[in-house]
Amino acid sequence: MRYVDEVLQKVIAQNPAQPEFHQAVQEVLSTLSPIIERNEELYRREALLERLTMPERIVTFRVPWVDDKGQVQVNTGYRVQWNGAIGPYKGGLRLHPSVNVGVMKFLAFEQTFKNSLTGLPMGGGKGGSDFDPKGKSDREIMAFCQSFMNELYKYIGADTDVPAGDIGVGAREVGYFFGQYRRLKTVYEGVFTGKGLSYGGSLARPQATGYGLLYMTKEMLKSNGVDIAGKTVVVSGAGNVATYAIEKAWQMGAKPVTCSDSTGWIYDPDGIDVATLIQVKQVQRARLTEYAKARPNSQYHEGKGVWTVKCDIALPCATQNELLIDDAKALVANGCMAVCEGANMPTTMEATKYLQDNGVYFVPGKAANAGGVSVSGLEMSQNSERLSWSFEEVDSKLQDIMVNIFHNLDAAATEFGMPGNYVAGANIAGFKKVAEAMLAQGVI
Ligand code: NDP
Ligand code: 2IT
To answer: Which of 184, 281, 375, 440 has the fewest Cβ atoms within 10 angstroms?
Structure first.
């Protein structure tokens, strides 16, 4: 049996009831064969894939907090430190009721390859909790964040593990986490990224994932002879990634016409208005029904549906497994030419294969959404030298990083006999650096 298949079987057997984790490992291993086969004996002897598919450490902890009625609530907290071979663990914290250990593991595993692709010295990690921030007061959010940090502070630090935002964690939550860390440790250090500008944050970090997604999309299309200007774009999500993807799509002369949240979606024939979206989701923290009220030409629909809208480019920016096989069929039938993932693993393997088989350019999240963690890496650099760079400087470095990632994965796909397969290219290019560092460091 092929080494990659043996390891996948072990992963599935040893990690029961973790379907998202199995999916992430399968997606990576199924494309690594060409590079594994070049060094199979060495990799087997070193148990390289067994080590790469197992976290260095998982911390699981209790998070008790008091709600506004005086009732004690209890959530589970996690930090998964996947692989530190190329730098301190780095990755976001997610607050969402769907969080469990399998979801955390898939995200930390993906993050390891993503961070490698950025070219910056960051290992892979992820964390979070099954806490649901929806409908909570500011005080309840703070109480939760402080309690979470009362345990997490022991395991993180500027040179060990540097968390950031993800679903349900934005500037407000990062502020509460950072404040509690500083209080407990009596140290002022760059232990978090995505911080506010007044306490060590980087300009352009809020925009970085969405902007980076569009820089990647534009470069990928350009290398295939296509201009992004004038293209119709459908976007899912209405949070950090979606909002700034929509903004940058406009700036590139494309027209983003949809967005969505966990209850419904918007089709705006005039294009999504970024100011209204920010007002509704970031300021009011309201449902998208409020967007429709403010923009009478737009249509609000309950449930899922953005992938049924005719488009040239689709950008899933909400959550995992939100683009299924029927969605892929609808996109192909409507003439969609490119899918670039803003979210982590939003497309199922079956849908990905269908898109690729039907000639749709497909860039996986670990490459396409790497702009966020890249600017996190730049925030760490600024914190280390105790300086702040201008928006233009950060943004220009972000553009260079995204363009480089594309050309690296494109070259890797070609070198290993799968030209145009950006999934394989991203996995191989991300794997190379981590594998080399692990082998160099011995049996760790
Ligand atoms: P936000 O919390 O800012 O926004 C998430 C959006 O997706 C919201 O509109 C939310 O709806 C919707 N959503 C979340 N979960 C679900 C679900 N289960 N079903 C339907 N809709 C859902 O998160 P981000 O924008 O930061 O993250 C979005 C994706 O991008 C995630 O996959 C994340 O891992 C990934 N990512 C984020 C990066 C970052 O820097 N923030 C970097 C790289 C990747 P509602 O408004 O109703 O909650
Ligand atoms: O999935 C991701 O890359 C993020 N949520 C951002 C991680 C980071 O450390 O900036």
So the answer is: 440
Amino acid sitting at position 222? K
Structural domains in the chain, sorted by start: 3-52 (no CATH), 57-187 (3.40.50.10860), 208-368 (3.40.50.720)
Instruction: Using the CB atoms, write b or e for 110-145: b if 16+ within 10 Å.
Output: bbbbbbbbbbbbbbbbbbbbbbebeebeeebbbbbb
DSSP state letters, 55-76? -SEEEEEEEEEE-TTS-EEEEE
Residues with CB under 6 A from ligand 2: 90-92, 111, 114, 164, 166, 193, 344, 372-373, 376
Mutate to test the pocket of ligand 1, among 131, 166, 173, 341 (most ligand atoms within 8 A of CB): 166
Q: Is 258 helix (H, G, I), strand (E, B) or coil?
A: strand
Distance CA 329, CA 325 (A): 6
Count Cβ atoms below 10 Å from residue 149 Cβ, excluding itself.
25
**Catalytic residue numbers?**
126
Per-residue pLDDT of 149-197, as tens digits, reads: 999 999 999 999 999 999 999 999 999 999 999 999 999 999 999 999 9
> Shortest CA distance to 165 belongs to which of 370, 320, 372?
372
Q: What is the pLDDT of residue 183?
A: 98
Measured between alpha carbons, how far is residue 308 from residues 21, 247, 316, 339 in Å?
28, 22, 13, 14
Largest Cα span, the chain = 64
For 154, residues 6+ apart whose C-beta sits below 8 A from its C-beta are: none
Tens digits of per-residue pLDDT, 118-130? Answer: 999 999 999 999 9
Which candidate, 293, 324, 327, places its Cα nearest to that of 311?
327
**Minimal CA–CA distance to 166: which of 319, 348, 356, 380?**
319
What is the tens place of the pLDDT at every residue in 333-351?
A: 999 999 999 999 999 999 9
Smallest CA-to-CA distance from 94 within 128, 44, 61 is with 128
Q: From 167, 211, 236, give the residue whose CB has the most ligand 1 atoms within 8 Å, as the site to mutate.
A: 167
Q: Cα separation of 89 and 58, whole Å?
A: 12
Of the pLDDT bands very low, low, confident and very high (cuts 50, 70, 90), residue 200 is: very high
Nearest alpha carbon to residue 422 among 406, 438, 437: 406
Is residue 82 within 8 Å of 126, Cβ to Cβ?
yes
